[in-house]
Amino acid sequence: MDQTREIIYKEIMEFPENKNLVEYVSKFIKLSKEGTRYIGRCPFCNKENRLTVFEDSNTFCCYFCYKRDTINDFRNLLLELFEFNSSDLKYDWEERAVRRRSRERIIEKLSKNEE
Ligand SMILES: [Zn+2]
After folding, report:
1. Per-residue pLDDT averaged across 16-21, rounded?
2. Distance from the alpha carbon of residue 102 to the mean position of ligand 1, in angstroms
3. Res 114 pLDDT > 80
């Protein structure tokens, strides 16, 4: 693993102490608060404002690609996005381009967190 991948893997595997999903997702994606929900760009389909994180139930749902559920599900999807437990080869070239852009955004966000 190169250094960037090592950092990404560490960030993905590291849950906040209380397993707070808003806190966890915020490491990777910029979320904005709307009432008791948080909205942001979905990292899995890259659609703006489709990802919703529910603070009260500690769950998420994307209203475009319908990826959803718990902090464990979110983590597993991130591991898949970064090809830690699968490969992008099963996707067509268009989906692969979307996933690549999404990875770039997350890496950019992680580097901003350091500042
Ligand atoms: Zn989505």
Report:
1. 95
2. 11
3. no
